[in-house]
Amino acid sequence: MEKRNLAIFFFAGCFSTMTDGCHVRACQDLEMLLALGWRVAVYSYRNHSQWPWNAKGIDTFRARFPGVDLVLDEWNWKLAFVQKLKGVIAYFGSWPGNRALRTWLPRLTPEFDRLQRDPDLKLALVSYPWGISHLNGTPGPRMIVDTHDLSALEAMAGAPAGRLNARSMLTLRRELFYLGQADEIWSISYGEGQFLRSMLARERVRIVPPSLRSWTMKAAANAQPVYDLVFVGSNNRWNGDAISGFLTAYEKWNLPLKIAIAGSVCRDRRLTPGNGVQLLGFVDDLASLYAKARAAICPVEGTGTKIKLIEALSAGRPVFAAPGALTGLLPGYEGCVLPLDRESIATLLGNPDALRAAQEAAARYAGAYSFERVVAETSEGLAGAPMDHFIVSRNR
């Protein structure tokens, strides 16, 4: 049997059912490693408090990623205590933080320890900066951290201008310390990537946007529109707050629009059908849903890159977005991502030629997020062997 270098992919809980945006990103990371020829083992905790690995999640994973090892350990109070302790020590940085993150305790994670003994282990890709503190020791000879988004920037965004609180600054200090341990940093967001390049060694920060490969304009072009606007989101507080706030403002606009809301966010009790609004619940075929809509909305502020926004653009649908949703986008979105206000929506939807041009601009712009392009631009050093100048010696 052909021997291939091993990469460990770590996500703390189950991501295969893709109920959240971070799960979509995790699947994309895993798909990139596989496309580049790595032998991959996914490491996670079976009993994660938010996303446990139940039978459905495991079956979905094995069906989607045949041949990929799923390696699960049990999260327990000892690991939780050590993780909290590492988080506190990380505030002090430098020597004590480095020593804490390298600390390995025997018999806590037998499956992780088994992976560490594989002679072909060359790479670990860790989801989230804090993911490092959830591991029992150092994960591999070379470590990449996918930031997903930065908690500190999210906390700062919610504070009054010029009045940052101590908690957000301490969170930033800790996140930067974690990221300083990585040989390479992946940022899903263009804006956050530029920020990290100004705070850390620039050459170690790589902007890796969402990678999509399942959307085609053909289906969208042949469909008859049923909805004027569509919003897709999971049931978290950011999505719920954003879409309920938008609908409250929309009630005063006096526009006869048909708006579809899809995803588990429909379980939010603040959302009710009526006034042209339909709650569709979970939708398996999002491509067909976008094909039935003239445009999409993204009222969600915050950090990172909104994958729902990229999905809509990839389906050839322009997006009316909140200002905070723009910071994560690659440059060049102006022709297809527009302000989320009454005037912009009424103007574009009332002009068939302008709408068609915006839809075409969306499809062109989304090419920057195609799976093939993102993989090609991220492939340096990931084609089966680590880059010598990125390897950092670690005492185990």
From TrEMBL:
SUPFAM superfamilies the UniProt entry points to: UDP-Glycosyltransferase/glycogen phosphorylase (SSF53756)
Species the sequence originates in: Aquamicrobium defluvii
Key words, A-Z: Transferase
Name this polypeptide is given: Glycosyl transferase family 1
Gene Ontology molecular-function annotations: transferase activity
A UniProt-annotated Pfam family: Glyco_trans_1_4
